[in-house]
Amino acid sequence: MAKRLIPTFNRVLVEKILPPSKTTAGILLPEKSTKLNSGKVVAVGPGARDKEGKAIPVPFKEGDTVLLPEFGGSQVKLGDKEFHLYRDEDILGTLHD
User: Fold this and answer.
1) What's the whole-model pTM score?
2) C-alpha distance from residue 12 to each of 28, 88, 95 (Å)
3) Which of 10, 61, 84, 89 is most buried as measured by Cβ atoms within 10 A of its Cβ?
4) Nearest to residue 55, comparing CAs of 25, 88, 83?
5) Angle CA 24–14–1, to nearest 5
């Protein structure tokens, strides 16, 4: 079993953040109200190459919280965890506190 997946080219490995299903007071939230497509970057590839062969770095780093598209990406299962693999241009942006 692989312990770590290193993406190739401009790919980014993301673990989706699961929103809380109930409040601190114990009130259950409907599934629709808790839907936010965000995730934490787990691993980043070395980047793509342009026509001259120069490296184009990936604009994200490990630990970034990113906004994900509703559809897309490739689902990857490692052990009991589920990850998604996206191209860097498919990720919509980074989220900051």
Assistant:
1) 0.78
2) 33, 6, 16
3) 10
4) 88
5) 110
